[in-house]
Amino acid sequence: xxxxxxxxxxxxxxxxxxxxxxxxxxxxxxxxxxxxxxxxxxxxxxxxxxxxxxxxxxxxxxxxxxxxxxxxxxxxxxxxxxxxxxxxxxxxxxxxxxxxxxxxxxxxxxxxxxxxxxxxxxxxxxxxxxxxxxxxxxxxxxxxxxxxxxxxxxxxxxxxxxxxxxxxxxxxxxxxxxxxxxxxxxxxxxxxxxxxxxxxxxxxxxxxxxxxxxxxxxxxxxxxxxxxxxxxxxxxxxxxxxxxxxxxxxxxxxxxxxxxxxxxxxxxxxxxxxxxxxxxxxxxxxxxxxxxxxxxxxxxxxxxxxxxxxxxxxxxxxxxxxxxxxxxxxxxxxxxxxxxxxxxxxxxxxxxxxxxxxxxxxxxxxxxxxxxxxxxxxxxxxxxxxxxxxxxxxxxxxxxxxxxxxxxxxxxxxxxxxxxxxxxxxxxxxxxxxxxxxxxxxxxxxxxxxxxxxxxxxxxxxxxxxxxxxxxxxxxxxxxxxxxxxxxxxxxxxxxxxxx
Length: 500
Ligand code: FAD
What we know:
Blueprint: H1 5-11, E1 30-34, H2 38-50, E2 55-59, H3 67-71, H4 83-91, E3 96-99, H5 110-116, E4 119-122, E5 128-129, E6 142-144, H6 145-152, E7 169-173, H7 177-187, H8 190-193, H9 200-207, E8 213-217, H10 229-237, E9 241-243, H11 253-256, H12 262-276, H13 281-289, E10 292-297, E11 300-307, E12 314-325, E13 332-343, E14 346-349, E15 353-354, E16 364-365, E17 370-371, E18 373-374, E19 377-378, E20 384-386, H14 389-392, H15 398-418, H16 430-439, H17 447-463, E21 474-475, E22 483-488, E23 494-499
Parallel strand pairs: 1-2, 1-4, 2-3, 4-20, 6-14, 7-8, 7-14, 8-10, 9-10, 21-23
Antiparallel strand pairs: 5-15, 11-12, 12-13, 16-17, 18-19, 22-23
Helix pairs in contact: 2-4, 2-15, 6-7, 7-10, 10-12
Bound molecules: flavin-adenine dinucleotide.
């Protein structure tokens, strides 16, 4: 059984020729982008559009492209992933290359890239998660929402995540859209999830889940939730599931409404309506039959995760009650001495993603998990730019990441044209980098390779009546021809091995 590809790749000698890239060094401006999520692809798109000769190489740590669009966005939101069509069009242009399976900072250093390119764009997102730093956080069945999301999205490094879903209650710490995504996946009827691209092995686990209650916990009040109205509506209408809200929590909302900014008014109205009013008759009869429920709890901060008697798993969370201090709608939560215990068998921490530094020379802000930059230009590093979550922090959606990527692309082109970015001296671009990769015995993955895997996933998925079956075990080897193998196991679970 193969584990995550990266560990295997390094051990294998490179006997196969490198992919068929044009390797001639050129006098054209050479730009590389680290990361192939929306930030990377939108920056590349803008560069190609605004400059007639720039060459762009995208380096990606994973063997496949698209970052959180493939491995973050919820599987039951396929329309959000349509931006992949635009990225694919960009990747098909002559002046761009995709080199997957190359981790910058590990396989190739940032300094080596700086030498090989006129400009380097950091677009590598926020791959870590924030911790609660409370006792009990290392118990089994306490997990970050980030890993849970990776697991149900088929991210190879999370394919082996072992969670015990043979419990009745789950607590999600956080009330943002990611928290709602994980709650929805835990509570959705399995027949609905079967129509998504959730891997078969994950569907098998979810189909055996006994979870019937998910509680989302927030430090402040309902007026402060970070979720958006679309996600709330989906929860309200979730099949075979009902909201179980505490009316007192919502009573102050109607009086607050005149002070709520316009952008959040409808959300707060809907929260108040759901918390206080009787549902319309159609929903009411569906709620009466529902076997699962979700709840929002407010003004609570986790202080300890409590173990079961044998000390091995989660029995509950000790929560401190908070009071609010400060200006209305901008209050901060202040913990009090009063506590309550919420019983649950699974805890998912959804308190934000966090970027990491890939090189000590970068001006990295540990607190925000971002690379210090002014409007996309990395502070104190000529020729180094940033876009997307690594530049802004893990906030905002694909649309805001697009704006960030386009902006950075435009700034680079302006710097080339004004001469602020010196491109007069030829640079080797990927020629040098491919040598480094080959010397290490690594095998980069091209966009053509991805296209073949994409076709294969769609084909397997079609046979199973779903959009695609994601390959969660990707093995990149040098010792055989490109090869995709599929095996079936008992109970219809598909196990797929993919080799280059
Ligand atoms: P990423 O998408 O994370 O891309 C970064 C890429 O860099 C990754 O592919 C990563 O593998 C690669 N990388 C990392 N380190 C290295 C390295 N050292 N070398 C080479 N490559 C590296 N937005 C919406 O609009 N709608 C949604 O429904 C939605 N749902 C979301 C659900 C979740 C769970 C999350 C976390 C986010 C969601 N978003 C959604 C937000 C959206 O995903 C982000 O705005 C966007 O992906 C940020 O883009 P990025 O390119 O900065 O980062």
